[in-house]
Design goal:
Shape: globular
Structural class: mainly alpha
Order of helices and strands: HHHHHEEEEEEHHHHHHHHH
Largest sheet: 2 strands, antiparallel
Strand content: 5-15%
Distance between the termini: 40 Å
Helix content: 55-70%
């Protein structure tokens, strides 16, 4: 909202109003704004939850310090959602299709998570929202995101134009200094391409998956793309949900991932950096830096209350939304194939549960009794069972997350 106000003030000649045109300035305001919102709302929301006796119900699993968490307020994800939405609405361009998709994602999965927490807390049903309804909600979001991404004319990439000999076509143009310069000819086009990590000048097109259909491939590629979107959104949001099991673990990990996505969005939406790094340039995606900044501030601000020992838990309201945000953000900047690296913590948490359940069922069927790979899943509980104290596990997971974030960023050059 402020963007449009200051844009108007700039047009009528108000000195200094043009600073709102700079993404870096608005991103800084978004970080500061989200931190302030989280700190102000957080204190009041925790007090409200305590007054209403909306606390976490704990099932005794024999973990150290577990029962001390009983009664700790949950549904703290409201703090995260508010701290993301308010600064984004204030400082981002709201006519940007990518920003709108991120806002829809935040609200959509936030509502699903809130409904799950509401059933657990108010209805006293430990199972919460049935799994099939969560999946339906995630599928619905995947369809919305995938269809918008594929069919919207505002979602394009900019590619260089090549002649019949494979040479880049050049053209003369006038730069800001009013001088004629020779530049590469480019064209904005619809595409289902995405980035393949570690591969130079090589991008993956979802159309390759239906090439066997011949000339009809272009007509049906949208189905493959939407299915891929649904899978990514569901997997990452569930991974974040499973990671939310220790104080500060999901919030800190999400802050690290959000910072990395913000960097990737900035270079992907800046024509000069994209050209220098030889990566896909996505017009108007730089505006996502504002959203990423709000996400960073929101998760760090939430850590003020969620750090060990936690004063509040985010619940599914926060964890499902954070996972979905990360998934959709990565898809928008066409870096979803980097998710196994960047969101490696979510991945191993997911895999640990799948392996544990699968192996237990297999051994029960074969030997008559179920056996386990880990002492407990998700993986962070395995380390708790192994004798590690909670803060040490969380900080070491953060360290691994930082290492994965650095690896993700250097994939821009390691090709």
């Amino acid at each position: 909202m402020f963007y449009y106000l200051f844009d108007y003030l700039d047009k009528i000649g108000m000195p200094g109003a043009g600073v709102f045109q700079y993404i870096s300035f608005r991103a800084a305001l978004a970080v500061i704004g989200s931190l302030i919102v989280s700190l102000i709302i957080g204190k009041r929301w925790i007090y409200f939850l305590q007054r209403k006796q909306i606390g976490e119900t704990i099932r005794d699993l024999g973990l150290e310090g577990q029962m001390q968490k009983k009664g700790t307020p949950t549904m703290g994800g409201i703090i995260i959602l508010a701290s993301i939405l308010i600064p984004t609405l204030l400082f981002a361009k709201l006519d940007n299709v990518y920003v709108l998709l991120m806002l829809i994602t935040t609200v959509w999965l936030g509502l699903i998570g809130f409904l799950d927490d509401y059933i657990k807390v108010y209805r006293k049903n430990k199972e919460g929202l049935k799994g099939k309804f969560k999946i339906i909600g995630q599928i619905g979001l995947g369809i919305i995101v995938g269809a918008t991404f594929y069919f919207s004319n505002d979602v394009v990439i900019r590619e260089k134009v090549f002649d019949d000999q494979g040479q880049i076509v050049k053209k003369w143009t006038v730069n800001k200094e009013h001088c004629e310069v020779l530049v590469d000819e480019t064209i904005d086009k619809k595409s289902t391409k995405t980035t393949i990590p570690f591969m130079k000048n090589n991008e993956f097109d979802y159309k390759y998956l239906v090439n066997w259909m011949g000339e009809s491939a272009s007509k049906w590629v949208w189905i493959i793309f939407i299915l891929a979107t649904i899978f990514i959104v569901t997997a990452v949001s569930n991974g974040a949900n499973l990671t939310d099991g220790l104080d500060g673990l999901a919030a800190g990990t999400s802050a690290i991932i959000g910072s990395t996505l913000g960097i990737l969005a900035y270079v992907s939406g800046n024509v000069f950096f994209a050209d220098y790094l030889n990566i896909m340039y996505i017009p108007n995606s730089g505006e996502l830096v504002i959203f990423a900044s709000a996400l960073i501030g929101a998760t760090i601000g939430f850590l003020w209350y969620n750090a060990f020992p936690a004063q509040v838990f985010m619940g599914d309201t926060g964890s499902l939304a954070l996972g979905g945000i990360i998934a959709v953000f990565a898809i928008i900047i066409r870096k979803e194939l980097l998710i196994p690296i960047l969101a490696g913590i979510f991945l191993v948490e997911n895999l640990s549960v799948m392996l544990q359940v699968g192996y237990f069922k297999y051994t029960k069927k074969k030997f008559g009794e179920g056996r386990r790979i880990f002492k407990m899943s998700p993986l962070h509980h395995h380390f708790q069972k192994s004798g590690y104290v909670e803060p040490k596990i969380v900080i070491r997971f953060w360290i691994v997350g930082i290492m994965l974030a650095v690896l993700t960023i250097i994939t821009l050059k390691l090709r």
